[in-house]
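Box 4.2: Ligand-aware structure prediction
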Amino acid sequence: VLAHLLVPDVAPRCTVTALCDAARGRAEAAALAHGVPHHFDSLDEMVASGLVDAVTVATPIGLHYEHVRTCLAAGLHVHVNKTIATSVDEATDLIERARAHGLVLLPSPGEVIRPQVHRLRELLADGEIGTPAFAVCGSSHGRYHETEAERAAGPEGEVIDPSWYFLRPGGGPMWDVTVYALHNLTAVLGPARRVTALSGCRIPIRHFAGRELVAEADDSTLLLLDFGDSLFAFAHGTAAGTLTRDFGTATYFGTAGIIDGYRMNGELIDFPGSELVGQSPGWDEHQRVLPHVTEPHWALAEQHVFEDVMQMVDAVLEGREVPIFAEHARHVVDIIESGYEAARTGVTQLLRTTFELR
Ligand SMILES: NC(=O)c1ccc[n+]([C@@H]2O[C@H](COP(=O)([O-])OP(=O)(O)OC[C@H]3O[C@@H](n4cnc5c(N)ncnc54)[C@H](O)[C@@H]3O)[C@@H](O)[C@H]2O)c1
């Protein structure tokens, strides 16, 4: 996301003044490489420095709660990468702290602002595929964190260890990748009511930079969700395989048709900006319709994360309500946390949280 924030069209609204990373030398090397004026090895020191108004938190998921809380306590607005926290209680605490201090708290992934998602909601409500019978979504972890090119890019040849992706809390595909599909699904169908699941660790040993990583987090989780009126969905977060066309989307089976990702009965759905889709392959093609993803950003990765950061910036500058809201992210945390509890106990869990679609 740093590359996006350094593109000149961002500068009138936001400038990167400091980088922080607890691994000694990493923030300094990145600051030097990208011309960022300040760097810190300690989050406490950065938030106390008076140099920043807002932070984008991109640390391991299991540390998000602590880091977002630290930023809010220092009076800073926060964008936090997925997933906001790893329990409903933590997410509630962050929501209440942000509200009490009048601060913006904006969690990724912002699936809910996509024009595609709004169109899906309309198509289902208008009965375009008849009565929706059930939905399927999810993503597999695969081995991509073991092979990401960026991991060889630490200062002085140091590698950036992905072990936390396979440890608790915060490890496993549910918090990391299935979270996109769960946001997308609930942005279309609204909040779920109950969850039940099976879950376990299928690949206990992984490999990175010539050594073994011992995985303790589940990498094989199958959830069943109840949306009421006998409308059910199935969500997977697994070590391999996928059931959906597009990363982070769902397939809806209706009595008169199928919506698979952003295609209805095989044809791309129409939505504002749909002419931009098809110009670029794969995951990136659906990012170009996002309002801040202008042409200079097309060649850069992780466009959706940049969009979410800029939504936080806009909310701060314009004093408006955030369109990507933490109550939605908390509900997805509830689904994952309650899913693990259902798998552990063998008992279907009633979800504790809800949210209203905006
Ligand atoms: N890897 C991806 O493809 C990807 C894509 C989109 C979003 N994300 C999200 O970005 C976040 C980070 O993922 P990543 O893959 O970059 O992880 P990573 O392990 O590569 O990087 C995390 C960084 O956080 C630093 N860190 C750890 N503890 C810290 C602390 N106490 N204070 C300051 N810095 C600390 C580490 O030193 C490391 O440099 C996660 O929320 C993830 O979901 C990752």
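In the box above, the bound molecule is nicotinamide-adenine-dinucleotide. The longest helix spans residues 326-345.
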